[in-house]
Amino acid sequence: MSHNHLEKLRELIRGKTARIGVIGLGYVGLPLVRAFCAGGLRTMGFDVDESKIHRLGAGRSYIHHIPSAVIAGLIRHGVFIPTADFSLLPRCDALIICVPTPLTINREPDMRYVAGTAEVIGRRLRPGQLVVLESTTYPGTTREVVLPRLQAGGLKPGRDFLLAYSPEREDPGRKDYQTADIPKVVGGFDEPSRQAACALYAHAVKTVVPVASCEIAEASKILENCYRCINIAMINEMKIILDRMGIDVWQVIAAAKTKPFGFQPFYPGPGLGGHCIPIDPYYLSWKARQYDVTARFIELAGELNTAMPYYVIGKVAEALNGRGRAIRGARLLVLGMAYKKDVDDLRESPSVAIIEELRRRGARVDYNDPFIPSTHPQRRHDLRMKSVVLSPRTLGRYDLVLIATDHSVYDWNLIVRHSRLLVDTRNATAGIRAAKGKIIRA
Questions:
Q1: CA 29 centroid distance within chain
Q2: Which domains are assigned to the chain?
Q3: Residue-wise pLDDT tens digits, 152-187
Q4: Which of 177, 264, 281, 432 has a CA 20 to 30 Å removed from the CA of 397?
Q5: 7-17: b or e for each residue (b if 16 or more CB lie within 10 Å)?
Q6: Catalytic site residues?
Q7: pTM of this prediction?
Q8: pLDDT digits (tens, 9 = 90+) for 62-99
Q9: 383: Cα separation from own chain's centroid
Q10: Which is nearest to 129 in space by CA: 158, 106, 153, 154?
């Protein structure tokens, strides 16, 4: 980048007069907007979903852990401008890409959103801008997918614009960490890019962690999520083994975690959800094959976790059979549509796979989730369901109640008391007395 452009960008960032553009206003982008605004930087938010833009413009949030009052305050003070007009991209000094990175039906990386966004930016890129990719992806994406599209118009990295990668580390539902509290890993295309990106994020987060390249930053996020995926798969497999032995896996975990070193507890469940852990390991295994390496451990973990909804359905069938019923024709209630407790996030939720399979087998299925009043279309699913009211009378109508998500607002004593039969995948009913055979652990 020319000396004048670089110095101007540095001065804008240093003086908090740089305008930030966040592209993609979902569970990553919107919290990032909040963090930059809190750090004193004017921020524009871009999204192709005009319904989101209208809601934000009216001061209404669509993400549970970001109150509408916060959005309304940012809009009122003029520090946040949501828009679907991508012709405004040149007005921003830094552009941060926070778009989805899903899998194809063949479990390969679907880079349409990253590539498409990079093309949109590339057509409008002006000298002196910093572009940062935050979407979780395989090592090499910034250099191989984003960079060629940015320089298609003739501008050159390092001379005309700066480029960096900084992985998002959002964990929806956490109350102990917000975006500003989570250390931010930053890798640059070159040293000036890294310096500029680090200076930028220093206004939004408490700790910035510079690394030597975009590839190191990309791989660090993949490592974090593979670590969790593999350990969750291990504990899910342990649950299946111990269940066959008649041993309570939850009591085993409670005993093991008393060791003050060398052990970190992970917990079993009905399958993996969210945007990262069910997806990212497949990104790495796909990339590894390009180097003639098979990621056996990672792929096995993915297979184990993907199979968990079907293990749960087997437990549902077993429980119903014990009462002389079959899945076909049974009335079932699934508690929890979100992928984990106390969030409104439906992405990759195992509840979706469970409900689809139960329906396929002939069950009549309803759900209750206080955070998700109705389901919305997803890339490969559209349940078209609404949450039913949860009451003693409602519970008594169902042949079986399946606990898929252990939201804190649920009254487990009431649920156990008024349900005919329960399958508990989250240990939510631990310690609650019930008639023998009424609660099945899964």
A1: 12
A2: 3-212 (3.40.50.720), 236-441 (3.40.50.720)
A3: 989 999 889 999 999 999 887 777 888 899 999 999
A4: 432
A5: ebbbebbeeee
A6: 276
A7: 0.92
A8: 998 899 999 999 999 999 999 999 999 999 999 999 99
A9: 20
A10: 158
